[in-house]
Amino acid sequence: MHQYLPLHRIECWNGAYFARSSLKSLGLRIQLGHPAGKRCPRPIKTWGDDFVIIDCDQIHSVGLDYCGCGDSSKGQVEQLLERRLYPATVVNPKTAATFRVLELFELLQYESKLSTYEFYQAVSRLTDNTGLQGIKDRYPTLLRLVHQWRHLKMLKRSGRGHDPFRGASETRPGECALLCPPCPHPGINLPEGWENVNREHRYLYALNIALDACFRMKRKDCSSEEADPGLSRGFAYVVEEAAFQEYLKKHEKTTEPKSTCSRHDAVNLADMHPGQGYASSGIATVECSRHNSKRPLADHGITLTVATCRDRFAFMLTPGAGLGDGEAPERGWGDLNPLATSTREMGPGTRRDTLDYHFGDYNWRKIIRLGNSLLKKMVMATSEVAEHVIAHQELEVTLDREQLQSWMEAMVAWELDPNNPNPYEVVVKTPTQAAVRRQLAEEEERALKAGTDVSLSDEVSPCSLIAMGIDLEGEQRSLKTLTQALWDHSQDRQITRVKLRSNALTRKLEEWFSLLQLYVPTSALLRKREPQTKEGPKPFEVRLWLPSQIGTRVSFDRSLAEIEYKLRSAQAHEALGVLRRNLQIRATLYDVKDRWLRARDEYRQARNALLALAALLNHQNVDQEFLPLEDKDIRSMSEAEPGQGETRRKLSWIWRRVNAADATEEETKAFVTETIRVEWGKSRARAQRYQEEIKLVQEEMDRTLRFFVWKVADWRSKGVAPRMKPISAEYAEGLKAYAE
């Protein structure tokens, strides 16, 4: 039996217990070149008769013989491959790995990013977990075997072995890359006349790509191109190194302009030196942004902070974008980042090849899941498109027809030429917390330069302290909402989530009070005076003792109150902006009621703080600038106050400027008109994007089917392609079988 299963692990009874043994010690020889169980009359032992086979569960030392009788016309390497053993060398091999261990490790690494060293150590310990048997180290050999195996599999899977005219070394750039079936490929999956469609439908045949860089994927300055050139020469996804270096030389004096509207590392760190001891600062990829597939060589992450750029380049506002979000590279890095630990230690060629293999597997997984992913997109778009379209139509019914026509003309003009005025930009602006915080930070910078800074901490300035307190208030409101949502039958995971949030907030509060005591030493006295309970207050009930809460109870630096006043003013403006935006959206479509409830609570809290600070700082007319927000004021523009008829209906004050008391009629009208225009434009964009998504996904489904039909025909033609040189019937049969 063991002649057919020569890699079994065996134990022999030694009179006292079963001791580990080997089939070789019992005289078993693995005969190559003959059917299993048949001996060769003239066997040729391996060189040194010390052959090692690496398998999934053990590193085996075996007796192995080649055929020397002439029945087999194949050489040593071919005889090993015929038995599904991959040799470490082509001349007098002494080590081989089974196909199954190479296949197992390949998939294990793709799924877990396991390193070759870790895998070898696991197999070595399965062989001997005591370290007493003196197993010969085959780790360098396995490294070479794995590298060759995956390179050959890449060539095989891309049909390079079927090419009758070009060998592997003549592989073209990108030829081994797996193409994305739903993407447009001229001559493969596009209908006739696609290039002549009108402008309105061009987006259906557009190639959507996204670019990004990952700076975790560094490489240490080890080895060299001469010592480790790699096996691939730009055959798949990573560019050919010589051509890339030539390109860099042509542009070595060119500096990438820094982004002025986004801290995007792929742009701003493009010219950064990788650092001492590193040869590469990272890698960049080009991907199809709709299906997350890596391209062959040949609202996201653009977290735009300048409003002009955000309104101009947002995917939801871009005609033809469908429901794409441009996040493809980010999702890809999430899958590949665990590979960084091992690739940073590799030589240049091995690293490029390893990335090619993993990119290929990443694409393959995308391809085999296309049916589910495209169906999911279609179901999501078709289930929501009607509601978005109806919501937009209902909004348009309430608008003036002439005004609507004017907006439509401006919108179309901007979509045709982005240099025209952007209808999504808000001209009437209100202060934001981010802008005020930046202004305060600049004031602190000037104070530092002038030597007049009064910060009592190297890490937390007065501005940062007050901003931290306002942020903590927001976390308290959020935790209170989550806690109130719990009930007797809440699930364990919901309770756990609230507990974890509560614990985290408690730790932040401890840090907050230690910092507050630096700037307001008397705050400790205020905390002592608070009524104490046996259980103590919940984290969201703890008073933070910001300047607005301290008032005149104790003395403190009034500059802290001025800082809070500026931040609270911006907070109130922002909260009203959120409230207005969400009241314009149908609550049946979006879960927006919670949003405007949060905005309501935030505004009320900010207003109370402003009134307290105004009394402390002697600021006038604050109660007129920030009006009280009652529940009856929270209504849409077309909604009347409860109890009022249409003839007496008045617009809620939240739709006028925040300082409604002194707003002129023209200012009020301009503000309301602008707010409506922007919300109408976004409503129109949402409805259009959902309709586009349905058409895009339908076209992608059709393209995927056409691509697969083309791929089947392409492989079948390769299987029967005429050869320049005669080949054996066995080889021809294998080519055809693999192609089929």
From TrEMBL:
Domain (CxC2-like cysteine cluster KDZ transposase-associated): residue spans on this chain: 23-131
- Specify the protein name: CxC2-like cysteine cluster KDZ transposase-associated domain-containing protein
Q: Which residues cross the membrane?
A: none
Q: Pfam families, per this entry?
A: CxC2, KDZ
Identify the domain of life: Eukaryota
The UniProt entry, under InterPro entries, shows: CxC2_KDZ-assoc, KDZ
